[in-house]
Amino acid sequence: MIPAPFDYARPSTVEEAVAALADEDAKVLAGGQSLIPLLRLRLAAPTVLVDLAGLDALRGVHSDGDDLVIGAMTTHASVLADPLVNRYAPLLAQATGTVADRQVRHRGTLGGSLAHADPAGDLPAVAVALDATLEIAGAGGRRGVPAADFFVDYLTTALEPGEVLTSIRLPKRGEGWSTRYEKFNRTAQGWAIVGVAAAVRRENGGIAEARVALTNMGTRPVRAAAVESALTGASADAETVRAAAGHAAEGAEPTGDLSASAEYRSHLARVLTERAILAALGQAHAA
Amino acid sequence: MTVTEEREVGSPRRRKEDARLITGRTMWTENVVLPGMLHLAILRSPVAHARITHVDTSAARELSGVVDAFSGRDVADIQGGLPCAWPVTEDMVHPDHPPLAVDEVRHVGEPVAVVVARSRAAALDALAAVEVDYEALPVVLDLEAALADGADLVHADKGTNRSYTWVFDSGEAGTGEAVDAALDGAEVVIKRRYRQQRLIPAFMEPRSVVVDPTGDQYTIWSATQIPHILRFLVSAITGTPEHKVRVVAPDVGGGFGGKLQVTPEELIAFVAAKRLGKPVKYTESRSDSLVSAHHGRDMIQDIELAARRDGTITGLRVKLLANMGAYLGLVTPGVPILGAFMYNAIYKIPAYRFECTGVFTNTTFTDAYRGAGRPEATYAIERIMDELAVEVGLDPVEVRRRNWINADEFPYTTVAGLTYDSGDYEAATTRALELLGYDELRREQAQRRDSGDTVQLGIGVSTYTEMCGLAPSRVLGSLRYGAGGWETASIRMLPTGKVEVVTGTSPHGQGHETAWSQIVADQLGVAFDDVEVLHGDTRTSYKGLDTYGSRSLAVGGIALYNACQKVVDKAKPIAAHMLECDPADLEFTGGQFRVRGNPDNGKSLADCALAVFAAHDLPDGVEPTLDADAVYDPVNFSFPHGTHLCAAEVDTQTGRVAIRKYVAVDDIGRVINPLIVEGQVHGGVAQGVAQALFEDAVYDADGNLLSGTFVDYTLPSPADLVDIVTDRTESPAPDHPLGTKGVGEAGTIASTPAVVNAIVDALRPYGVNDIQMPCTPERVWRAAQGGGA
Predict the structure, then answer these.
(1) Residue B503 and residue B512 in contact, taking contact as beta carbons nearer than 8 Å
(2) Chain A residues whose beta carbon lies within 8 Å of the beta carbon of residue B694
(3) Three-state secondary structure call for residue A243
(4) Does ipTM top 0.90?
(5) What Rg value do the Cα atoms of chain A yield, rounded?
(6) Domain A7-52, CATH
(7) pLDDT score of A33 more than 60
């Protein structure tokens, strides 16, 4: 269908963007891969669309000391191809490679995906697992919000009206860390029924640290805290991993829909967590 | 009979229509722009069943850019009703089907009101200003509950939700024994209930229609498979004389049976154009298309198979409940009846009974979808053949072999009364088993079972035949179908020797322009590129019965062949005159008439075409034209067949099914263009696999279509499919001068049971003997946990 009428602004600086967002029914347009379908279905009818396409400053990846900073308007395809991302945040690169299809990855952006906060989206769980900080600009200045606090509810984030997500800051995870995003979907370009983002740091043959976050196991990404604590300080063998993964769905509140019941999602969370950690440890599951 | 060299037929020509179809730089209906053209938007019912207590379009009419707005009540007397051309029984209940709902809506998505505006955006914006009040009525969804005493009714005035019950009984028909006796005395009886989920054809190009009233002529462009049938029925429904209606199906982007329909939208556009005296366009959105274009399948199949302990089938009883939806579409009631002749499949079955009851529900009406009745039949019989194999302890291939019709038994008259023309089931099956590496995979399966592998392997076997070449007109008449099954072709020889072919078929992606050119090139001895194929415009192709049911080549191809022979026959006396010889002394090869024994002296068809153009020196009494028409009514259906095998890996921990190898060996008779055949098989298999694994049109308890977008109606992409290993065996169609049988539906028919049989086979050790389609990961996982799903 055709969207309802709206005004269109194309700022060229963050300040202009923030000013354009003064209207409370304004909406930010990044890559448009989620918003434009909603507009076409008339499920969203903003008064003004603030298109960030002209903000070149929000594109690209750079190194900042111990952190990696990714502009919010960096497309999935650029994230996927970026050498810094592949070196310091391979989990993000791998998960980004599972997002929808090639066409969508060339239009969609990392920032758009996080700000949209669809519980079935792959990247919010990755941001939580990697302990990202989301950098935000608004009329009152700039602030950073940890990923764990950024995702509030279904399609709802800590972004206030008038604020713009400008960049994503990730601690570099180099030596010792290994990661895996395990995604389960019905079709190759479909949303995740469940996804598991896992990062483990090995030391002296054991697991020194583990970070595990789940996609689509609730209205926002879920940290699998019980799995993490069961793994921390444990040995890196298959039995230990299996036992730890058994806690994956604890505290999660998945919903049922056409593609999966809540019970099946919880089961998948356990199976996929085991597979993700084993894969991260280099003990790849056969499938 | 002329003898020609065959150069084009059998060659994998790239399709001449593809450049324009793939780039989209062509005339789709949506690309039609006419001076003063208005745009139409349709307000659709948000509820499944309700009385319309109030409609007010006046506020919409006041909006900027809006030219008109009206509801069903405003046009109740002039809009006419949608046709059902297949009243399968004398007493079939056939409710009125107004294009725009008048007093009551009976499914979500039913058109309620219309806005016509100067732009599409203005028309869509104004829909929000149309006021409609609904008073809820009980919603009927479940097929069995709908037939119970005291059930709520979809059409209260009809007093029942039963549209018809249609029966075929071999004992009564004299084509076999009585089935009751066979079942009562059987050594083995297997009884199953299978469900054909509802599917959405989901053609690539959404439906679009433009109606242009100019003078007293109405020109209708429509993304339809059936321009000729549409013309006839629009004329009949609206009372417009047929010669004042022209229908154009320009390039059409797919149909799969979904555009074998006279649609509410076409008639609504006609009413609007007539009312305003201006051209009007309607193009549906994808969401509108999914909820309102007719759906397919949706049946409950109760099937009982009687057999001896050695695996020999002794009887088959089938009882169907077929979901009609809220109304009857063009051939809705007939779709399951086409399956009646196919449940017995390739097998020698002595006793057979088929009973189908059509049931109304508050859902989008169903109608033809690729295979139309035949995939459903093939699914049920091929699923239960695997159950028979397990029951009697035979390999699934062996149990089929013990029952199928042998190559030396053709022509073979089946228990359903059809005469199969030719085939060799053994040859196709043997080839398929080789290509799959059947024995080796069976060994691997045993190893995985023994080791308790979390990933199990299953092998699915599916054999099939189908009735193609719809259809002998007499047979259609005996089934109470409203039209015949003949097809036409015309050849126009241009003075320069180039050829225009007019076909009564209406391609929407099949590649007729290429295949027809190949046939004509061989028959007339002209170059492939010198043939232009015209179709889909009733002004150039005034007669035809269009494209569906794998009929175009199997029926239209013979008309084309016959027209070619007539051209050659007309040219012969002219060539003889030029060569100063007796026509009887001429032979026609490679496009040249030559005197027998004198190969150096000849005249081409082009020479003859120029000669009749000038007409200066023709034999006395010879009409100055080579043009010829032919109409062909088939004497029988054609019966392609094949064996499809699927090896699937099933992850018992997650329920994910991964097809590892898929082999399709089809016998479709002689092949005109192997590249086109390959494409048809690939696309058909993809669609059949999609029914097995992915697609499902789901309604909630209130009758809302939950799978109303492509996020929820799960179509697979190439990434979800595997390379398909294809091969062919060849049993030419004896009734067809070109020997072709039809391939448009084969892949869809064979593949669904092949995939499900593979999954069930993988999970047999877990006590599984069925999984409801689509076999979603969750259903498969649950089956692996405890048998049922």
Answers:
(1) yes
(2) 186-187
(3) helix
(4) yes
(5) 19
(6) 3.30.43.10
(7) yes
